[in-house]
User: What shape does this take?
Amino acid sequence: MENKYLQKIYKIIILVIMILALFSFYFTYNAFADDEEKYAVQITDVQAYDEKGSINADALADDNIYTKVRFSEVTSVSFTSQSDIKAIYLIFDGPLKGYTLSYGDYILKSDKDGFLHDFKQLYTNVNSLTIEFNAGTVLTDVYFFSEGEVPEWVQRWENPLEKADMLVLPTHHDDEILFFGGTMPVYSLEKGKKVQVAYMNNHWGEPYRPHEALNGLWTSGIRNYPIIPDFNDTKFYDLEGALNYYGEDALQEYYVSLIRRFKPEVIIAHDFNGEYGHGSHMASAYSVAKAIELAKNSESFLSSANTYGVWEVKKAYFHLYQENKIVMEWDQPLQKFGGKTGFDVAVDALNCHQSQLKYYSMSKRGVYDCRQFGLYYSAVGEDVEKNDFFENIPEYQAVVDQSLISEVVLPKDTLVAEESIDNSVPNPCFNCEVPDKKNSDYVFVIAVASGICALALIIALIIYKGRKK
Ligand SMILES: [Zn+2]
Assistant: This one.
């Protein structure tokens, strides 16, 4: 009697386990199916060839910016795949010189000239497309994706801002991280401010560095392409040397033009003493300080005054400035960065600067302390709370929305004029951990399913053992 009763219970348990297993399978399968639709897959079977059949296709597919393909003349390259291509990500070795993209019924001109990393979403799925590159183009890598959301490491740069809340003014590629710490992640993605970065020097002489810079900025939550001017990087040990080399007037004109163009509420600039004594950092701080005054005056630098109008910034913080000191708190977890702190994100971003890691690391000490600033200029009074670069600045409506990203689509045979912009870098940052949403979703579903199965199995085992006794 008791035995029969137990047998019945046992059967019910088995049935429950089977039902639970079926449910788990169903939910897991659906989660995967949904994600498959939502997320793009990288397509790796793409063949690349030009008219002469001489292109080194491997160099474009090897995910390595050090292997390059150089086009000494205008060159059409065709890409074909068995899979449907819906997006393409191009990495150039220098500022993009323009190209013409043809696929299906479309012919498009590049609209991100000057950029290094160029992402293009296609209007339709295609199995083949052709890109005509201009003479002098150097391409390092090309990535292809299916329909859906591309991985986070794929940089989708927007044009420089029309109106910035904050203008960040590093000298070299990496100074914006090393010395300004959590400034970019905290104020860009986390607080939703419009942050524009403009360097004083370019590093075209070391072609990997602009890529590192873009990777670091992207990791920091910056989405508007940085400004990279024509001042070449050279090492100086004092202010005079740097000012003589670059030209005091030329530097001031550059910074006045930036202030008038981007109309920032807040400026973040270098230490007047050049942090570890770099003359170019000193020249940057010196010139920014002058430019803040000059930008207000309609009689100085007429060209940018006529183009952009005059502008008065509300506040300017200089790194390590000894008056009106403020110590920024970069150790708060940031929601938009998966709980990482501003300092953590800065560490990730600096890791993108592979070539510089032997010299520098993020720090909270001495001249490398990325939290120490001083309010050098204010049109809105002194800081009281001393915890926010935007203290005393009233919330305002953004004047203009930036990033036009309008692409001209024409019927075949009608080529269009192109837009153009500034310069920058591609290639994913291999060191920066970007949370993989897709994986975390899978892991969650699988974990729940496994948990249910495991629980059911344990119950079954207990019952079975009890029955045996
Ligand atoms: Zn520097």
Q: What stands out?
A: Confidence is low (pLDDT under 50) at residues 397-443. The chain has eleven helices and 14 strands.
